[in-house]
Amino acid sequence: MSLYLVQKLFYHLNVDPKVRSRFQKDAEALCAEYRLAPEEIATIKEADLAALYRMGVHPLLLRPFATLKGIGMADYRRALAGADKERR
What letter would DSSP give residue 35? Predict the structure, then answer.
């Protein structure tokens, strides 16, 4: 797993409309360009916020990703709260 590469992808999704467009068209191909592991790609495609948070993805990178995936603030908070409890 490469937390750095996952966060780099999320950063680019947040700041670059072209990357966002490519992600929406073919997320798997874009993720492969970032040399992400199959498990990371699956977690991203599933938008498993809790797993991404447990993986170490920073919440400031996760929130815009959640919005991109159509996940509302209440569900975002619930996912991170649940993941935080699991970490303890």
Answer: T
C-alpha span between 41 and 88 (Å, rounded): 26
Q: How many domains does the chain have?
A: 1
- Domain CATH number, residue 42: 1.10.700.10
Rounded distance, CA 85 to CA 79, Å? 10
Q: What is the span of the domain harbouring residue 49? A: 3-87
Q: Is the dihedral of CA 22, 27, 29, 31 positive or negative?
A: positive
Confirm whether pTM is higher than 0.90: no
Contact partners, residue 21, CB within 8 Å, separation at least 6: none
3-state secondary structure 45-70: HCCCHHHHHHHCCCHHHHHHHHHHCC
Low-confidence ranges of the chain (pLDDT < 50): none
